[in-house]
Structures are given as structure tokens and as C-alpha cells.
Write a structure and sequence with these properties.
The structure is a single chain. By secondary structure, the chain is of the alpha+beta class. About 35% of the residues lie in helices and about 20% in strands. The strands form three sheets. An eight-stranded mixed beta sheet has the order 1-5-6-11-10-9-7-8, with helices on both faces. It has a five-stranded mixed beta sheet with strand order 13-12-14-15-16, sandwiched between helices. Helix 5 packs parallel to helix 9. The radius of gyration is 27 Å and the shape is elongated. The relative contact order is 0.12. It binds adenosine monophosphate. The site of adenosine monophosphate has 17 residues, from strand 6, strand 10, strand 11 and helix 11. Adenosine monophosphate binds next to strand 6, strand 10, strand 11 and helix 11.
Length: about 425
């Protein structure tokens, strides 16, 4: 999250924090009545005064609403980080509560903007060390060219309606593009020779798409054109994109987004071009590999006896003011027990203070992962701990309840 913040702010985005609960109508009007999210995945309830409210299933509608209600001057670039809720069958990489990292640009129309935003997501993922992810891109056209394409697609589907699954038959009625979202192998097979939106773009959309491709290659971002990519939300226009791992499985989509030039108007605002994306935090964690344990960027001060207690507390304070996280076990006094506490908290270093260390004005620094111990002068301690390579690249200062393994929670924790 901090890396995402850093990079988004480098690209000129500011954080927007919106409520987790919104009026249901906002999602119906924006995410759209033909999307899976609105038709079957929202947590919707009535409050005490009978209003229909929904736990946000995605971030874009709330961000757009916040801009309109607060009369934020456009063009503006916003990013958000937070939990989203969708009622779907939980499995590895798919949870009912999950976190998204997203950006939205409101008021910028040019293809260079699309390229910059796609590049931002790519740069973020690559910076985390995910090297086998490349953006897939497509264009689904605009209000000028899409109706004719829809007709062509409908004709194609009409001749085969019986062969499609029940969901696809409904999708066909509501929004034929949606059939491309179907995960059923038989439906995908039937779609292999369906007409492609890229062949039906008006000249403005074709020019825009070429501009996006050029913009990406100018930035050295590798991308693949995927003419089946339509994305599950109703509001997209022109550019649609997804960050997929090369394996191509559904849970390997780390995130995606697109242009939504009509959404702001649809929710009651002015006509305003816009584009954004959302990345799934849990999917990113899965791609980074299972966490190896609660490894914290933490030092543990271990006074060997009561004579070193005061020096230990002083060292704690000094470390914290030098920006180094540190703890001490105030409940146990035996050094062995203190080292045990340090290890179970995932600390990297034990900083041992005994009579010798006090006499020499040093600290014995024990790397709890490697077991290597060395004596470091007090004056050089902060520099020693601040050295590049002193800490492993990956430290985890958090524990996540909905683990990226997708394991069912053990329970019951609450006794009735
Ligand atoms: P979407 O908002 O549907 O475009 O999804 C964007 C990204 O959010 C996906 O690529 C996933 O990484 C993540 N995501 C969507 N739904 C879920 C879910 N139920 N559980 C975990 N991650 C999800």
C-alpha cells in the first residue's frame, strides 16, 4: 500500500477516501444493471428509514460521486485503497471482502493518458517483483460505433443461442458484449469466431486505440491485444485493459480497468471523459508467493540482567527516534525467554546488552534469522541497522485474516 501511494503520488494522483456504504442506486446507475456485480454480487440492505444501501463492491462510483458532490475541480487524478465487498463463492483469490488499490483520472481524454495510467499499474506490479505480468488491451468502441457492432454480435449469437449457457442467454438479451465474460469453456469455444469489436471501431476510436498502443511502446510497456477483453462492468468505453499473469487463469487477473467516458454523465454530472483501474491486493500477495511468517522489520532489545534494564530502555528510545522499530519484553527477564519472545514476534535482530557491552559502549547484534552475532559500537548502531542489505527485502509488518491461501476460517471463535 505504501508503494502504491508513493507511485500514484509520483504520477500526480491524490488520495480520496470514500464511505464503504453508499446508496444502492449509485451502483445500479454506474456499475450497471447488466453487470454480474449488480445482478448477483452486492451486499444490499435497508437501513432503519427504509433506504436501500450497499456495501461498495468497487471504488469508481464512490470516487466519481465524491468529486461531483464536493465540486472538485477537474481534471483531477485520485487514488484509493480500501475494502470492497462482493457476494460470490469464496475460493483461492476470490473473497467476499477484499482490498483494492485504484486510480481514477477525471477530465482527461487523450490516448496518452490511457497509456500513462496503464503504465502506472505495470510499473507498480513490476516494482513489486511481479515480472510475468503484462497488460492486455482492447477497445470496445464508443456510442457511435458500438450499436452497429452490438447488432453484428447479436446476429452471430442469435444463430447459436441454444448452445450457450443459461447466463449467457440472459446476457445476450441485456448486453451482448457481456457474453465474453462467461467462464464456461463451451461458451468460450462458441465465441472463438464471433465478430471482434476491434474490426468495428469508428475512425476516432481506431485512432484512439492506435494512440494507446503507441503511448505504451513509447514508455517501454509490453502489452498484448486481447480482442475478447470486455471487462465485467457496464460503463467502459473505448480502452479496456487487464493486468494478467501469463498463466491465463481467471484468478490470475491482478487487476484491470478502462475508459469510462459516459459514467460521470450517467450519475448526474457533466459530460466528462475518465479512465481508471483497480488492482486486487490479495491477488498481488498470491502472485508474490505465500508469506513465510510474520517477519517484522523489528529489533528486540535484550538486557541480560537487572543491571542493564535502564540502558535497555534508553536504547529503545534511541532506536525509535532514529526511525528503527524496537521492542523489549517487559514481562520476562531471563535472556533465553526474551530471545524466544523476539523470535515469535518475528524480529530480525536481538540487541543484547550485558555488563561487557555496557563497559565497552557496544551492543551485541544477533541476527535471529542467521544466528550470526557481532559486537557493534553504540555510536555506529543506527548506521549498521540502516545499511542496505541489513534487512531482508521482504519484511511483513501485518497479519491478514482472509489469508491469501483462501483457507476457510477456523472457528468458532465466539462462544454463544
Ligand atoms: P474488477 O473491479 O472486477 O475490475 O476487479 C479488479 C481486480 O480486483 C481483479 O482483477 C482482482 O484482482 C480483484 N478482485 C475482484 N473481485 C475480487 C474478489 N472477490 N476477491 C479478491 N479479489 C478480487
Amino acid at each position: 500500500e505504501s508503494e502504491f501511494r508513493r507511485l500514484a503520488e509520483l504520477y500526480g494522483f491524490r488520495e480520496v477516501v470514500t464511505p464503504i456504504i453508499e446508496h444502492t442506486e449509485l451502483f445500479v446507475k454506474s456499475t450497471g444493471t447488466s453487470s454480474d456485480i449488480v445482478t448477483k454480487e452486492m451486499y444490499t440492505f435497508q437501513d432503519r428509514s427504509g433506504r436501500s444501501l450497499t456495501l461498495r463492491p468497487e471504488g469508481t462510483p464512490g470516487a466519481v460521486r465524491a468529486v461531483l458532490e464536493n465540486r472538485v475541480r477537474v481534471p483531477c487524478r485520485l487514488y484509493y485503497i480500501g475494502p470492497m465487498f462482493r457476494y460470490s463463492r469464496p475460493q483461492k483469490g476470490r473473497y467476499r471482502e477484499f482490498y483494492q488499490l485504484g486510480v481514477e483520472s477525471l477530465g482527461e481524454a487523450r490516448p496518452e493518458v490511457d497509456a500513462e495510467i496503464i503504465a502506472l499499474g505495470f510499473e507498480f506490479l513490476a516494482g513489486l517483483g511481479i515480472s510475468n505480468c503484462r497488460p492486455e488491451i482492447n477497445s470496445i468502441g464508443c456510442r457511435e460505433c458500438r450499436p452497429a457492432y452490438h447488432e453484428r454480435l447479436k446476429e452471430y449469437l442469435q444463430d447459436r443461442t441454444e448452445q450457450f449457457c443459461a447466463d449467457c442467454r440472459i446476457r445476450y438479451q441485456q448486453n451482448p458484449l457481456r457474453v465474453f465474460d462467461c467462464k464456461m469453456a463451451a461458451c468460450q469455444e462458441l465465441l472463438s469466431s464471433a465478430p471482434r469489436s476491434l474490426d468495428h471501431l469508428c475512425s476516432a476510436c481506431a485512432e484512439h486505440f492506435a494512440g494507446v498502443q503507441n503511448g505504451l511502446s513509447r514508455r517501454g510497456v509490453p502489452s498484448t491485444t486481447n480482442d475478447r477483453l470486455v471487462r465485467g462492468l457496464d460503463y467502459y468505453s473505448r480502452t479496456a485493459f487487464e493486468y494478467s499473469l501469463e498463466s491465463g487463469r481467471a484468478q490470475d487477473s491482478l487487476g484491470g480497468g478502462g475508459r469510462y467516458d459516459y459514467l460521470v454523465e450517467d450519475v448526474g454530472g457533466p459530460s466528462l471523459p475518465a479512465i481508471g483501474f483497480a488492482l486486487g491486493e490479495e491477488r498481488i500477495l498470491l502472485a508474490l508467493g505465500e508469506p513465510g511468517g510474520p517477519e517484522a522489520r523489528l529489533c528486540w532489545v535484550v538486557p541480560l540482567g537487572p543491571g542493564e534494564f535502564e540502558a535497555g530502555v534508553k536504547l529503545l528510545t534511541e532506536l525509535r527516534s532514529a526511525g528503527i522499530a524496537a521492542r523489549m519484553d517487559f514481562d520476562r527477564c531471563k535472556p533465553k525467554q526474551q530471545l524466544h519472545s523476539a523470535a515469535s514476534a518475528g524480529a530480525q535482530f536481538a540487541l543484547i546488552l550485558g555488563p561487557d557491552e555496557l563497559a565497552h559502549d557496544t551492543v551485541s547484534v544477533k541476527n535471529l534469522k542467521t544466528g550470526v552475532q557481532q559486537e557493534v559500537p553504540r555510536a555506529a548502531l543506527a548506521a549498521f541497522l540502516g545499511e542496505p542489505g541489513a534487512w531482508p527485502r521482504e519484511t511483513r509488518n501485518w497479519i491478514r485474516n482472509s489469508g491469501p491461501t483462501g483457507a476457510e476460517p477456523r472457528g468458532p471463535f465466539l462462544k454463544s
